[in-house]
Amino acid sequence: MYSEWASLSAQISANSCGAQCFSVLNKFPASAGREVVVSVVKQLGTNLGITQNAEPSHLVKDEEVKWCMDVICFGLSLPLQEHETIKDCVNVYCEWLTALHPQPRISVPKPICEDANLYARQIINHFHNLFVPRQGEILPFLYQTTLGADTIKRQAVLCHRVLRTLQQTAQISQLMDRQTWDTLLLFLLAINEILLAPPTVKDDVGDQLCERVLSVLFEVWLLACVRSFPSPSMWKTLQESCAMWRHRVALVDQWNRVNLALTARLLEFSYGPAFPQLKNADEDGQLIPVGMSNDCVAQTWYRFLRMIGNPTALCSPHIISKSSHFVQWALTHEKGAETHQHPCLQQLPQIFLNAMKGISSQVDAFLGLSKTSLIGLTGGSGGGARNAISGSSSTNASSTTTAASGTSGASSSATASASSLSTVTIGGSGGAGISAGGPGIPGSTATGAGGGSAPAPAPTTPTSTSGPPSASSSINSLPLTSMGAGVELAVARPKCNSILHVFHEWLFEAAHIGGDTWRQNRKKQACEASKRPSSMIMEHRKGSISLSQPNSLNDPQSLPPTLTIDKYESGRAEAIGTLCKIFCAKKTGEEILPVYLARFYMALQQCLKITESRECDETLASILLHSSDLFRLDLDGINVLLPGFIAALEIVLPDKDLKLKTQSMVFNRTELRRSAINILLSIMVLPLHYQTLPIRDLTSETSEKMFTFIQLKSRLMNILMNALQVETDAQNTHMLLGGLLLCVQDAVTFEETELGGNASLSHNSSGVQHHEANLLSSDNAHALFVRATYLVCHRLISSWKTDLNVSLAALELLSGLARLHIRETDALECKRAVKWICDYICYQCSRPPPAHSKDLHSTIVAAFQCTAAWLMQHPYLLQDKDCLQTVLEVVELGISGTKSQSKGTDIPKFKDEKELKPASMRVRDAAENLLTIILEQVGYFPSECGPESISSLLDELALMKHCNSMVPAAAASSEQAIAKFKYFVTENSTILALLEEPLGNDQDPQPTVTLLIRGPFGRHAWTMQLRHLPRSKSGIKYHAINPGRPIPMNDVTQRPDCEQKNFPDGVDKVQPCVADYSIPTIEQMREQYGTASIRELEAMLENQSIHEKLAWAEADTSADSLSHAQECVPPSVCHEFHAARLFLSHFGFLGFETRNPHNPNEALGQPPQRPLIVLDTKSTAFAADLDRLDKLSARTHDTVYVFYVKSGQTSAQQIIANMAEEQAASHDPHFASMLQTLGWPVQVADHSGWTGFAHNSWSLKGTPEQEQQQQQQQPATNYNGSQRVLYWADVSSEIAFVVPTTWNLRYNSDTSDGGSISSTDQITAGNVWARSDAGESGPTKSKSRNLSLELDTNRMTKEPVPPTRRKGNVTKPTLLAQAPAKIFLVWLESYEDYLNFPLEDVLAYTRTGEELHTLQLPRANDCHVIFVHSLLSGLLRVKLQGPPGRMSFATPLVDGMVLSRRVVGNLVRQTALNISRRRRLDNDNYQPPHVRRRLKVQDIVQKYKMDLSEAELLAHLFQRAI
Known about the structure:
Blueprint: H1 9-18, H2 30-46, H3 62-76, H4 83-96, H5 110-114, H6 116-126, H7 128-131, H8 143-146, H9 149-172, H10 178-196, H11 205-227, H12 232-244, H13 249-271, H14 282-285, H15 294-305, H16 317-320, H17 324-332, H18 348-367, H19 387-390, E1 423-426, E2 434-437, H20 496-512, H21 516-531, E3 536-538, E4 545-547, H22 550-554, H23 569-584, H24 594-607, H25 618-626, H26 642-652, H27 669-683, H28 686-690, E5 694-695, E6 707-708, H29 713-726, H30 730-753, H31 772-775, H32 781-800, H33 804-818, H34 827-845, H35 854-873, H36 881-896, H37 921-937, H38 956-961, H39 974-979, E7 982-986, E8 990-995, E9 1008-1015, E10 1018-1025, H40 1082-1089, H41 1091-1117, H42 1122-1125, H43 1139-1146, H44 1160-1164, E11 1173-1175, H45 1181-1191, E12 1196-1205, H46 1212-1217, H47 1229-1238, E13 1240-1243, H48 1264-1273, E14 1284-1289, E15 1293-1298, H49 1318-1322, H50 1339-1358, E16 1383-1388, H51 1399-1402, E17 1424-1430, E18 1436-1441, E19 1458-1459, H52 1464-1482, H53 1489-1504, E20 1505-1506, H54 1510-1517
Parallel strand pairs: 12-15, 12-16, 16-17
Antiparallel strand pairs: 1-2, 3-4, 5-6, 7-8, 7-11, 8-9, 9-10, 11-20, 13-14, 14-15, 17-18, 18-19
Helix pairs in contact: 1-10, 2-3, 2-4, 3-4, 4-9, 6-10, 9-11, 10-11, 10-12, 11-13, 13-15, 13-18, 18-20, 18-23, 20-23, 20-24, 23-25, 25-27, 26-27, 27-30, 29-30, 29-32, 30-32, 30-33, 32-33, 32-34, 33-35, 34-35, 34-36, 35-37, 36-37, 40-41, 45-53, 47-52
């Protein structure tokens, strides 16, 4: 850089040597000179005002002043025993130097004031005498023997005084001219040379003053850069001089201080105020003079950076020790020694480390990582201060304690955004330093300016260098944001190329130290050296000697054991760690020069070499700590390092106790493992992605050592399994569990899709797959499934059960494994898994009361959910008697708190005898839920309705439409339909709606009752018939066949005519007597009564006879004639039924006598205790309340919003606009395929599940004709929820994936004016079945939505508070204390855009209509975001962002994981569901859906119950429905 310029070294030597010749007193004997000095200086000293008041000086002429100065010059060179005299000399000169100040002291002689610069230069030259060795004392390091330590301290005090005066003068003087500045700088260089060039001896004056003289030199030099910029010759001299002092620890420390101070200023003006500040200690911030211009800062920064030459020279003691001082020491050593064996060189490894740390801190600053600057680097043994390893992905490498200043810089939250960027290029020769240039300049840092600001990374504690950091960190105490890639880099950071242009030479060389290539180079140098004649070449530089004997230069045997090359490993580790940081800072689409990549890969290849002993050395640790992101960045050719990294992971992860090379390595093992796991997660999917592609070895030409990717799969699996086996840190375990599910899922999907389900094409060399012995060694999907299930269940029971997060992650993983479709799934394995989960629940429930916390119960609830997942996916398990018993015992334990049989031999305890003491209400709810799933859903899901509903799709209106008695036109409203039903409540939790009319499709006139059962777990429709006959005989109308009567015989027989006689024949012959005449004759009567009466009587008789004849005739012709009336006919069958009464009676609901008289509650017959409660359906609000109950889903529901962010987009409008039809063509094609794997596309119009919007979910949809019309009106193009949405459901949860467009904003209107209470009574729930006019477009839709929202709002104000279920937390049944988790899935074209994603603005597009129920609107910092970035390899990189809660991050996705496209939809969906589940578990006030439904039923009972006595209830049953 300064090769063309002359060095001023000779002048420095001349000044130092000639200082004592300046005075005329040197011509006289020393004693005479001493006496003159004592008398003159004492007199001058009294005028200074130190002991008495100052007086004006008596020296008024130049000659007088010069004479006195001659005397003082001699005085300064007196032996150190003359301390008082020397002190007076120093005092006089220090006072006289104030002539350069704006206000000189009164005692300064007038001539000096008049020509201050001239005299100041002389004074400065005379000061050499104070510092140079005295006559007879050859070198300062001999002081120790001849002088006491006390004398040295006194000399040091005087030197301090001089330095302070010179520094102060330089700072405040306005008069100094260029010559004076040069003299001052040369003087400072000379005294540094005198004190620092000799080999260090402990406690000599050089050792004591070392820090001070260097800091003054550097600080004054910086001042000179502002006031009088030093010439290139001066810079060259400085560079040469520093090379002579490199054996001093202080040099590198001070160099680091100045460099970091200059870097801080450089960053300010290069990258603008938004760039993260480099925080230096306060006094270091003042190193840079106030008036320094930006250009000056840049020039000075570059020159100072290059000042000590290449730091790797510190690894060669021969080079450091080739100065004349060391040669002199070697020659005078009594035993004879080589120069490089001086004991002071023992410090070199530490000096090298400090230099590397300084460079590392500068790189950190350019990357925006600067938390705490690294200033006073601690001394100590070579590896002792490995704080760069202790700082890791979460505690930054540069965050070490500052020993020199004693202050530790505070952590700064870096908010990184680029507002203005300047480009920086480093020039070559002469005065060229840093110039601002355009993007065209090679190596310029032209980066796109990004607006907005990055979220601040979590503040981390700087790790102390003095001791090891905390051994492990629990998730509960750490925010999970640092799980992935660690600290955030500045957005506006320079390109990697730009940083490498500055530092690459040093870093690459340092990274190779001690490696194979380094040794080969040394051998080559040795050969070249041996060809030259063995000689000692004297250089012009102060006689410094270059030893070129090959034996001493390259013979490692001649080095002391403390200086062997492996002692420099700490510095090498720092260098390779810094390189890893630089390459990990690559942005999406950024190019890195191939030469840099090649050198980097070579360096890593060398550093990753695993030794025979398989120990972890510092280099390996440093690489792993700083290269978490290497495989996620699309670095060209990075996969050549895969075998090396896998070998490194095999050392670090699978072993419980890491084998360390040296015990002095101080770093956090947990952090090291975390970084290693991050690397593992980013390479897990590579083998199945690239399969048989070969990986070339960088070093060997032959293909012997060539691997294919697929060969590495089993090694990766083993690392993962073994790491999980021994991992103790909660966060690390969480990450490994996520990785495990990724592996198994990927393998299963791969075998299904790529191999067409042919699992025998396993990648294991042996063909046999199905033997137990081979199962663990193979790595096909089934083997992985078995290993994963076994390992996770085992660890869950043995060691994870006490940690909430790990337990949840393990249970999530087991649920995920349950859902995998593996063809040869072993029933025994699944049974074992279920048994283990049940054992886990038993263990957790049986823990002593103090352990029963919210967290414990959360794990139990999660375990019940996990059991449900296994049983749903493997219904055959319930056919197994043991499995069924185990599961039902656990359900009983959850509901009642104890098992009926604690041991198999115990007598079972019946439910009536047990006291209900569940572990908690949450546990009981979860157990009830599992029981219902076992009884109602296992093997029966999905039903005819499809997965979108677990309830019947029939309601009152639908049933009435099919009812015989209903005229279709009349079925207009649900009120009319409800009026046809009778409503009863049983067990205070189930509403029975009974319809007594047979449906139109029923031909049999059987007693028919149609039930709608609304319970906690849904709405179910049953039709029941009372049957007395088997169906085969039901066509015969009656059971007793009527035989009829015989046909009458109408043939009339011939009867002979004979005269009818009333009396016997002989009656005429009998003689009448008086008695015979006692009955008067008719004539006599006529005579007696008169003819009129007789005639009347005759007429009556005649009439009567006519009537009778008519009556007989009529009777003969009628069916009721005597002949018919005598028939015996069976009674006709009854066709008119009160079927409801029959049903209730037959099902035992009317058995009132079962009440227990000893139970006062039952004796009083309070409604809840009665078997049946009647509901009054006359109220107009009843239909609306029923509708609300139907709108409470029996499953949980969640919504995920999907966004597509094109490169560089930061505003919500741009991002939302990407989903417009015309934009769709420009999307990444993989985005559309990912959408398809998230869920099933459904038409909102005919979807009866969750749609992502509260107003049209869970409603019974319209007839097919209407749907077709609607579809014709608007072609469905997207999934924004207006017509289509992506939907997925299982038995307990529903999830909708909405891709918002501008349409979604329309529902963001202010709905807080929810209508008055009175309006509730007037509004009906609307005809959700017929969907008469709720069209898809226009204001009607939003109107109906608002109505439903008003209903919801009003309901909240009127509802009674349900029974208390949670201690101290009584909430209204539908009032969620916490909004459902807002989950966003964001596809990034450019990874860095995640920093600027406009969460706040996007929230407006994500309203579901449920927000009004919550106590607070969703906030941006409560949102969970899953960022997915597509890499060039076709793999996907994941970034998770979310609130820093204890439970917010769920598996299987882990921050930083790399996925294959095969599994992305599945894993994203599982993660979203698990995030929501965790959020619910963590919410004290959350009520499961079935509890909310039960409370709603109880609410309806409270509102509409009819308090009927038994008699009234029975009477009510005899009233017909309307």
